[in-house]
Specification:
The complex is a heterotrimer of chains A (about 325), B (about 290) and C (about 260). Chain A has 13 helices and no strands. Chain A is an all-alpha fold and about 325 residues long. Chain C has a six-stranded mixed beta sheet, with helices on both faces. Classes of the chains: A mainly alpha (about 325), B mainly alpha (about 290), C alpha/beta (about 260).
């Protein structure tokens, strides 16, 4: 516990220093609006990627319709702030809670399925959520919800992003997390050791859906506009890509890849590839997968320890 | 419109889904990959047909054949470049690669080759509407249905009556064992991609004739529906894919006609989910039990 | 009252009767062996006892309460734990995490404790850690606690599987070919270990084994299964002398021994 206290203090320190650095950069106009927007998008994508990694990477359940939960949170919180004039943070939390409810509704029937079948059913549910929203006039139908108040600031994104990653980290490093990982490793053995695997899977799913909902709320109050198309299966796929490219089962991997892959199209745009950026993005992704199928980090975590180890044994990588 | 009329429209639509679904199912059966790029191979088929007709002024059958051959080559090439090196990787990695390949085809076509705007597919046949009592059917629908049926029959022949087909079935059943029996796995996988892709290419041309506007993103929705058809029928099972394709076509046409156009996609997805919940291996698939 | 009472247990897969009319009673502190030729249905019996397969007919009672129809994890809570014929460790988890997992249902804290890292969380995690370490010591794996399970040599993986099952706090331990793939030296050590844990933890053990030496050496009672049916029950001496067994399974090898 003492050790934990020290670790927490160090982590807190790093987070505060990071924030101060960020504010200095922003307030001194070193980072213009364009960069701030990208940074905020990265923060939101980190929340999505780490949350989905809990389900795909740690619990081993291939879920594809993740953007559906993001849309539930986005619409819920937008309605709460716009139409019911609720303050931002409670609206975000309620958006996350609503997404969790959907997570439960989707998870209970589908998580019995395995592998590709699970992937497809969740993809289907994501699409159903989208089509339903298209058909609800109160939510703007296919035209979307315009004029959402711009409550999302870089401070909020930063704080919520850090907290989300921390909570997911805490869950992984607990008995609940061990149960989830054991489901990924061997479901039958896990069940034979007294683990209610359905419970483990569904709780991972609900937690992930909650954070997806929060991320959706941040997203809506950041772009000030949401429409069903922003949460289609390409968006779902983008989040899965963050997870796989970063390394399934590596939180730091998810963070790095969410950052890099959000940045990549923007960099391509800067270099004048604006028209070809999706094509280049896809080609780079293909190359990454071909040459590093385990993702950037594999299932390892980037930590201070890794740097220490590097000094002792070079090239002591996989296996 | 009458019920029988809807039935005919549904069959015409469903036969296209079936042709695409067969490719999904064959590839899945052999390397357990959901080949997302398959939908774009179908799109490529439509464009190859388009160029064959507009540039080389060939009639229907050669255009169809060109599209099939072109797509077969494309399919094999994609497999060799993108999937073969990853055959031993986790399946989700393959899935991402397939998706990347799909994006490359779509955006490559939209930015480099033809541009993002839809193009009119040339009219290969004058549309003649034939009246049969209250039902009307046009000659394009008849041609589409007959081509689809002939192709499916040829496929059945290849898979169930030839040596190659036997090797394909063996590989799908157990790749390692098939290899030990002297089957060249790489060839079989290539052939599978070639056959599946050529059927998708044919579907591209057929759809081009039915809905004469083609664009680089035309594969997305039909691709997804065909894929659902494959899963619905029991992925990896050939008759399942055909059956599923027809079922989705009918279901879609009927919901559009009698329930709601806007909700028809949601209804198709719900159908899939309901069926999977009650029959987790699809309608014609066999449930597998993990050996403990 | 028997610890485990199995009556008339039968399972059919389609038309195939894998096990039929299987009856045994296991008393507390028994060390019973279940033997039989390949495909006789031994592992199927284990799978029914632990809820992986649902029997077509028959009843399984643990301490006089039926467990048929329960999920595997519910059965584990009735103090039945098992190992697997083809090792099923959590390969990418550390050795100690493999063992810690089995305490999940016994030492519980909530998501609230987890997320806010409450004192309760640290207290219980500490307890899990200590208990797991103690078990690893029993199985001489304590120096490898932080290694990944998949990096252990074969014999140690087998031991870890038993340790993990022990952590699930069983009264009845089911071992599925614990000595498979071990060399004679390792097998000998394992025999002693099994006997020792039986006595030390006041345990009842049912084991499937191919290694005759091991079975005859440590089991006090033996049940022989052939084609899904019990063909003999008794002490090692009785089994050795039973002509049916010799014919069905032991064949010449045992005839020479006898």
């Amino acid at each position: 516990m003492k050790q934990h206290f020290r670790k927490t203090l160090i982590g807190f320190g790093i987070a505060v220093i990071g924030y101060i650095l960020l504010s200095v950069l922003i307030n001194s106009k070193m980072l213009n609006d364009f960069y701030i927007r990208i940074l905020m998008m990265i923060g939101i994508n980190i929340i999505l990627a780490t949350a989905l990694n809990l389900v795909i990477g740690f619990t081993g359940q291939l879920v594809l319709g993740f953007a559906g939960f993001m849309s539930v949170g986005a619409y819920m919180s937008a309605v709460l702030t716009m139409k019911l004039h609720m303050p931002f943070i409670p609206a975000l939390v309620l958006g996350g809670a609503m997404a969790s409810v959907f997570g439960l509704l989707v998870g209970v029937p589908t998580l019995r399925l395995k592998g590709d079948y699970l992937a497809i059913t969740t993809l289907g549910f994501g699409e159903i959520i989208r089509v339903l929203i298209v058909n609800i006039d109160y939510l703007g139908g296919p035209r979307g919800l315009p004029a959402i108040p711009k409550y999302t600031t870089y401070t909020w994104v930063y704080i919520i992003c850090v907290l989300s990653v921390l909570v997911i980290y805490y869950i992984i490093h607990s008995s609940h997390g061990r149960a989830m990982i054991s489901v990924r490793e061997d479901e039958i053995a896990s069940e034979s050791m007294g683990i209610n695997t359905t419970y483990a899977k569904i709780s991972a799913f609900i937690v992930a859906a909650f954070f997806a909902g929060i991320a959706g709320g941040l997203y809506g109050h950041f772009l000030m506009f949401i429409d069903p198309k922003s949460f289609d299966w390409l968006k779902s796929f983008e989040i899965v890509t963050f997870v796989v490219a970063g390394g399934m089962g590596s939180l730091t991997g998810s963070i790095l890849s969410a950052g890099a892959l959000t940045l990549l199209p923007e960099i391509l745009r800067l270099f004048g590839f604006s028209k070809y950026r999706m094509l280049m993005y896809a080609i780079l992704l293909l190359i990454l997968m071909l040459f590093r199928p385990q993702g950037l980090m594999g299932s390892k975590e980037l930590s201070l320890k890794v740097f220490k180890n590097l000094g002792f044994k070079k090239a002591g990588g996989e296996k | 419109m009458s019920l029988i009329q809807q039935l005919i429209n549904g069959l015409a639509q469903g036969s296209v889904y079936a042709l695409i679904a067969v490719g999904y199912t064959m590839v899945y059966g052999i390397i357990r990959l959901i080949n997302f790029a398959h939908a774009d191979i179908y799109m490529m088929g439509a464009f190859i047909g388009y160029f064959a007709v507009t540039v080389f002024h060939v009639p229907f059958l050669p255009a169809l054949l060109l599209a099939m051959i072109g797509c077969a080559i494309l399919g094999m090439t994609i497999e060799k470049i993108a999937y073969k090196p990853l055959r031993k990787s986790p399946r989700i990695v393959l899935l991402i690669t397939a998706m990347a390949m799909s994006l490359i085809l779509e955006h490559g076509m939209a930015t480099v080759v033809v541009g993002p705007n839809p193009r009119p597919f040339p009219e290969l046949f004058k549309i003649n509407i034939i009246h049969l009592g209250p039902v009307q059917i046009n000659n394009v629908q008849i041609i589409n249905l007959s081509v689809a049926i002939i192709l499916v029959l040829i496929l059945q022949y290849i898979v169930y009556k030839t040596k190659t087909g036997k090797a394909m079935r063996a590989t799908s059943y157990d790749m390692e064992a098939a290899q030990l029996m002297g089957i060249n796995i790489n060839n079989i996988v290539s052939i599978t991609f070639a056959i599946g892709s050529s059927l998708a290419g044919a579907a591209g041309v057929l759809v081009g004739m039915m809905y004469p506007r083609i664009d680089p993103y035309m594969g997305m929705m039909p691709g997804l529906k065909a894929f659902i058809a494959a899963v619905l029928g029991g992925i990896g099972v050939l008759p399942g894919a055909m059956f599923g394709g027809i079922l989705i076509g009918l279901c879609e046409t009927f919901t559009k006609a009698y329930l709601s156009t806007k909700l028809s996609d949601a209804i198709v997805f719900s159908l899939l989910i309901i069926i999977l919940i009650f029959k987790p291996a699809g309608l014609l698939g066999k449930p597998t039990r993990e050996k403990v | 009252m028997a610890l485990l009472e199995v009556n008339n247990l039968t399972i059919r897969f389609g038309g195939l009767v894998a096990v039929s009319d299987f009856n045994i009673e296991i008393e507390k502190n028994d060390l019973m062996g279940l033997i039989g030729p390949n495909g006789a249905g031994k592992t199927t019996v284990f799978n029914m006892l632990t809820g992986v397969y649902l029997p077509t007919e028959g009843d399984i009672k643990v301490e006089d309460k039926s467990i048929v129809g329960m999920k595997p994890y519910e059965i584990t809570k009735k103090h039945l734990a098992r190992t697997f014929q083809n090792i099923r460790l959590f390969k990418s988890m550390s050795v100690i995490d493999n063992v810690k997992l089995s305490y999940n249902y016994q030492i519980k804290y909530s998501y609230f404790d987890t997320i806010f890292r409450t004192p309760k969380f640290f207290r219980l995690e500490e307890e899990i850690e200590q208990k797991s370490m103690e078990l690893l010591k029993v199985f001489k794996l304590e120096h490898k606690a932080e290694e990944l399970a998949k990096n252990l040599p074969y014999g140690e993986q087998r031991r870890l599987e038993i340790a993990r099952a022990m952590a699930a706090n069983p009264k009845l331990l089911l071992l599925d070919e614990p000595a498979a793939g071990m060399n004679p030296q390792e097998t000998h050590e394992l025999m002693n270990l099994i006997k020792w844990i039986r006595d030390h933890f006041d345990l009842t053990i049912l084991l499937i084994e191919h290694d005759m030496k091991l079975v005859m050496g440590i089991c006090e009672k033996i049940v022989v299964l052939d084609y899904g049916k019990i063909i003999a029950k008794g002490t090692p001496e009785e089994i050795r002398a039973n002509p049916k067994v010799i014919e069905a399974y032991l064949g010449e090898e045992c005839a020479v021994h006898a």
